[in-house]
């Protein structure tokens, strides 16, 4: 579904991604892991076209999207849950969700489609249904993350990208978020997950990439990466076990 071909990208002429190549097949969950500063968030923002690339190509279903504007990328169905959630704090849960529906608002069956997507999201996140009239800024961190994911799902994404969804959340809430991602993958949604919690992210992933200093240092099936002692010691912050 998505193919990244030797992308180099960054900010103000500095390089944050150095000739990165990746492939995401339809219906799979791909995790990109690595320490803070590895280039993971830059990768997601480059795919969304919010960060310029200096060379290389990004293809979505064999269409070159490297030169598109961010809004055009969303129109194709590539939807991002940004780091830090970036909700509209003064608006209610329902109002935030309605904003997520913007991509589909031009459909002739808008009302019916909106009701369908809202039911779907509320079914995944019953807590959002309970808080429908509450202002987003008054919710807990976990509830806000659920709302951020729900808002993205309102757009009926074809590729859902999540940038550090566990950031700042309690372990129990992180487990809930990962359970939802597992459900979405089983439902056939294609997912790109960028995470510092490498073990959990790779355990969930069909395929994984390990990044460090703007480059891909390893790739393979998720469980193979998470159980490689040398790899986890070098890049994922785990000590190598000794006898």
Structural notes for this entry:
- There is one protein chain.
- The radius of gyration is 18 Å and the shape is globular.
- 40% of the residues are buried.
- A hairpin with a 2-residue loop joins strand 4 and strand 5.
- The chain contains 10 helices and 10 strands.
- Helix 3 (93-100) packs parallel to helix 6 (141-153).
- It has a 6-stranded mixed sheet with strand order 6-7-8-3-9-10, sandwiched between helices. A 4-stranded antiparallel sheet has the order 2-1-4-5, with helices on one face.
- It has a domain at 1-77 and 190-238: P-loop containing nucleotide triphosphate hydrolases (Rossmann fold).
- It is α/β, with parallel strands linked by helices.
- Helices cover 37% and strands 24% of the residues.
Relevant terms:
243 residues, alpha/beta, Rossmann fold, six-stranded mixed sheet, four-stranded antiparallel sheet, 10 helices, 10 strands, 24% strand, disordered C terminus
Describe how the helices and strands are arranged.
Layout: E1 2-9, E2 17-24, E3 29-33, H1 40-47, E4 53-60, E5 63-64, H2 70-75, E6 78-81, H3 93-100, H4 110-124, H5 126-130, H6 141-153, E7 159-163, H7 171-186, E8 190-195, H8 198-204, E9 207-212, E10 215-220, H9 222-226, H10 229-235
Parallel strand pairs: 3-8, 3-9, 6-7, 7-8
Antiparallel strand pairs: 1-2, 1-4, 4-5, 9-10
Briefly say what this structure is.
The protein has 243 residues and is an alpha/beta fold. It is built from 10 helices and 10 strands. The strands form 2 sheets. The chain has a 6-stranded mixed sheet, sandwiched between helices.
């Amino acid at each position: 579904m998505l193919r990244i071909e030797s992308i180099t990208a960054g900010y103000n002429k500095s390089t944050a991604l150095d000739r990165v190549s990746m492939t995401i097949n339809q219906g799979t969950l791909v995790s990109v892991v690595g320490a803070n500063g590895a280039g993971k968030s830059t990768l997601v923002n480059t795919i969304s076209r919010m960060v310029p690339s200096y060379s290389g190509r990004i293809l979505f279903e064999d269409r070159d999207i490297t030169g598109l504007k961010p809004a055009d990328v969303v129109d194709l169905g590539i939807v991002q849950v940004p780091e830090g959630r970036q909700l509209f704090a003064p608006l209610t849960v329902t109002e935030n969700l309605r904003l997520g529906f913007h991509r589909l608002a031009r459909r002739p069956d808008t009302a019916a489609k909106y009701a369908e997507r809202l039911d779907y999201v509320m079914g995944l996140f019953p807590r959002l249904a309970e808080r429908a009239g509450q202002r987003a800024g008054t919710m807990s961190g976990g509830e806000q993350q659920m709302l951020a994911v729900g808002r993205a799902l309102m757009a009926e994404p074809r590729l859902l990208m999540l940038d550090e969804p566990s950031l700042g959340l309690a372990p129990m809430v992180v487990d809930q978020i990962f359970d939802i991602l597992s459900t979405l993958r089983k439902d056939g949604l294609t997912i790109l997950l960028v995470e510092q919690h490498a073990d959990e992210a790779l355990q969930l992933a069909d395929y994984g990439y390990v990044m460090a200093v703007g480059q891909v240092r390893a790739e393979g099936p998720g469980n193979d990466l998470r159980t490689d002692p040398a790899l986890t010691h070098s890049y994922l912050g785990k000590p190598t076990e000794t006898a």
